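Reminder to self: keep the SMILES exactly as supplied, no canonicalising. Ligand is magnesium ion.
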Amino acid sequence: MVDSRDHVLSIQNLEVVYSDVILALRGVSLEVPSGTIVALLGANGAGKTTVLRSISGLLPTHRGEITKGAIRLDGDDVTNRTAASIVGHGLAQVMEGRRIFPDLSVQENLRAGAIVRRPGREELQASYEAMLELFPVLKDRWESAAGYLSGGEQQMVAIAQALMAKPKLLLMDEPSLGLAPLVIEQIRDAIVDINRQGTGVLLIEQNAQMALSIADHAYILENGKVAKAGPADQLRADKDIQEFYLGMGEGGRTRLNEVKSYRRQKQWSS
Amino acid sequence: MNDFLQLCFAGMALGARYALVALGFVVIHRATGVINFAQGSIVALGAYFAFNAHQTWGLPFLLAAIIAVAGCAVVGIIVERLLLRKMSGQPVFSVIMITIGLLFVIDQIITMIWGQDAQNLGDPWGIDTVEAGEIVLAVVDLWAIGLAFLVVGAFFLFFRYSSTGLAMRAVAIDEEAAMARGISVRRVVATAWAIAGSVAAVAGITLASGPAALRPSVGLIALAAFPAMILGGLDSPLGAVLGGFIIGITQTLTAGYQPAHASWLGQDFQSVTPYAVMILILLIRPHGLFGTKEVERL
Ligand SMILES: Nc1ncnc2c1ncn2[C@@H]1O[C@H](COP(=O)(O)OP(=O)(O)OP(=O)(O)O)[C@@H](O)[C@H]1O
Ligand SMILES: [Mg+2]
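Structure tokens returned for the bound complex:
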């Protein structure tokens, strides 16, 4: 077990407002113990991406602002720092929708991920090789424009690009979105691999099944608040969560849309 | 035939100057999506910096040129810092209007300091010429052409291999994604303005040295370089150079043949040709010769 004070990320009582009026987070507290995978689940619009933007310094680009609370990365206060400074401090992210650079080659995408740590030629080469070991399929696409790759391959590029910064903490925003089950499996295995090598992971997902299967802890976000939190296996056994997130509820609500619309009606917190 | 070749060479020499001006447009557009209409006045400023250092201070021409290049880089950074940084996140249209305003301000500053009269920037090349067969190549023109190729080559290496160049391309494609990678957008944008300033100075010096006189109006060349950039596709350094040559050559050929063969087009028709060529090529290729059509985001 990890010492409970040894958190790579700790967020206290975070409140975020967009455009001065839209309250998106209402006092979120969350922790990622070093070396663990923490899942952050929640429906559309719950505020998952907003949590991620707050941590990574990208709120200003969306006219968002932290109005309360503090964010600590590896013990240091990084609240309201610039994105560049936070990445320099050991945080990397895979953004929602992948957001690779489509016109750049796979190799250039990876190189762009490493710019922040100014690696030497050999260091860079070693990092490339580590990434190709993690995602061997990228070897054949090395010189192609990343925009021409399949969705799954693009997600791999996005993950590899983030890892090129050698982060202590990796944030991932819905990496399984829009991918086929087999590809999701690959991404899932990669996340486990990455975590085994010592990187903490905060995994944002709507695919609770996948996230809970690999996470150590999980938080459930609802309307900008943490509605539930606990060890992942405990949440996996939770009745509500089985019903609303794992599609195992009465009436066999297994299609995402049905689950989603039902989810909107019923909420844990208000 | 020799007339034709001679005109083509003159066109390349003119086109090389267009290309140098257009490259300044390209680097700023590539990094920020803004078309800097003040580029022409920075070209003029570069020429006057060199004039001041060479003629007023009496420094050697090459040293004066280096001072002008550095000076314009600093001007680029100051402009970005004082005016454009405040505008980040604002509509591109407003930013472009600011650059138009800046064009007039810099022009006014130039006439305030150096006056309206024609000056002599200096002539390190003299009237030296090289003869190739029957055509005569002025050394100053060869320099301009060589410099255009040198600069475009440097751009290519910069964007391809340097971290700053890669960061600039990343910012141009997706600013937020670049920020998420820890790339400082501010630094990238400041670098782009500095590079555009330096290239403008090189353009200004090749335009106003040698037999040409230096006047505040030297920056008006940007009006012809502008179609060269659009022609090349806004984002492509190689496109800017090719666009420059195409426009330069059609312009000198028009000047050479139109008065005798198509006088009904009126006097001074060659000053319209850059735009005529631009319209023609855009009709055929709406993204210009080398314009990048974005790869569909999946
Ligand atoms: N730029 C913005 N300006 C104003 N409101 C915003 C902005 N971005 C998000 N919001 C609002 O903040 C709330 C949380 O949005 P957020 O994107 O964080 O949710 P999410 O959990 O990531 O949803 P999804 O699963 O759809 O990605 C939503 O109500 C959304 O409408
Ligand atoms: Mg989201």
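Points to follow up:
The two ends of chain A are 34 Å apart (CA to CA).
Residues 129 and 136 of chain A are 9 Å apart (CA to CA).
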